[in-house]
């Protein structure tokens, strides 16, 4: 699609267990993967404050999930016409003026280069774009983290769209990982084991409070075609980054044949580090704190012909 084209949309109602039920399900599972883990139903804290620094106070109010585009738009050559506007997307999701947070590719048509996006946009606020971008410095390969005022992006994103209100959310605290999977994968697999083919999604923000994590940042678009996952992984730049990292995104327990990204989180910080979260690399010291809402509806927007298993490691 171009910026002036309305993309195709598939709408699906998600399974939404009660927060108290999810509290019990996740507590039992997380305590098998972390030495310390607790799940509580709480009033959402003011997420505009540090360390979260979001563009709205809460993640409640008609929460819905958007899975937009996908990695196939990078392969074999980037489809530069795939440009999306958050304003248009909020209308497609029947929630104009929404608060949108999550992970995606940055506005390469604005920045002039490719980047990782940490979408953080409150469309009701004239100064409500607090999105961060992570780029690769072409001089030395280091990560550059910056803010942008653009409310557009390219290629792909997984976004929580809500009214940005306060309300009841799941608070998850977990530390000292003993399981093999990363934090969001652990949560997703617990939900999958419980709800099987009923798609249950959680979306919002988690904080890597202690420890370090492996992240990647996409460099500028490849000058040569990328024809395999091996070529894609060789193209990406990988980093070890330290806490605190604020991670925005979503996870869903089951893909009902819509080629969904089952989990996708991007991180930013106030110390110049950020990118696509893979997993923590210091299990003995890692600590997480998450605030998640339960999206009621999924919008699959501009679904590519085939979605590759990209960026889940």
Automatic annotation (TrEMBL):
Pfam families: DUF1907. Coiled coil: none annotated. GO terms for cellular component: nucleus. InterPro entries: C11orf54_DUF1907 (IPR015021). GO terms for molecular function: hydrolase activity, acting on ester bonds; zinc ion binding. Residues 25-301 form the DUF1907 domain. It is found in: Nucleus. This is Ester hydrolase C11orf54,Ester hydrolase C11orf54 homolog. It comes from Acanthosepion pharaonis. The lineage of its organism: Eukaryota, Metazoa, Spiralia, Lophotrochozoa, Mollusca.
């Amino acid at each position: 699609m171009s910026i002036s084209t309305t993309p195709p949309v598939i709408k699906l109602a998600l399974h939404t267990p009660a927060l108290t039920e999810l509290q019990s399900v996740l507590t039992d599972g997380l305590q098998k993967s972390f030495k310390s883990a607790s799940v509580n139903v709480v009033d959402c804290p003011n997420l505009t404050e540090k360390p979260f620094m979001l563009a709205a106070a809460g993640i409640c109010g008609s929460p819905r999930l958007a899975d937009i585009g996908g990695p196939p738009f990078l392969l074999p050559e980037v489809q530069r016409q795939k440009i999306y506007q958050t304003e248009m997307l909020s209308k497609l999701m029947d929630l104009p003026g929404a608060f949108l947070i999550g992970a995606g590719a940055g506005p390469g048509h604005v920045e002039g280069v490719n980047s990782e996006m940490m979408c953080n946009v409150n469309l009701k606020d004239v100064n409500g774009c607090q999105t961060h971008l992570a780029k690769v410095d072409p001089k030395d390969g280091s990560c550059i983290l910056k803010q942008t005022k653009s409310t557009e992006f390219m290629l792909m994103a997984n976004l929580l769209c809500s009214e940005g209100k306060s309300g009841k959310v799941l608070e998850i605290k977990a530390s000292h990982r003993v399981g093999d999977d990363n934090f969001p994968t652990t949560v997703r697999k617990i939900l999958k084991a419980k709800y099987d083919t009923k798609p249950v999604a959680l979306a919002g923000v988690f904080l890597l409070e202690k420890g370090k994590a492996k992240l990647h940042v996409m460099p500028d678009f490849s000058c040569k075609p990328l024809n395999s996952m091996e070529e894609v992984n060789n193209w990406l730049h990988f980093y070890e980054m330290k806490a605190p990292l604020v991670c925005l995104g979503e996870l869903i327990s089951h893909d009902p044949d819509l080629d969904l990204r089952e989990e996708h989180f991007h991180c930013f910080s106030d110390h110049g580090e950020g990118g696509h979260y893979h997993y923590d690399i210091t299990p003995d010291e890692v600590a997480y704190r998450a605030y998640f809402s339960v999206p009621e509806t999924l919008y699959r927007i501009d679904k590519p012909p085939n979605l590759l298993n990209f960026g889940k490691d």
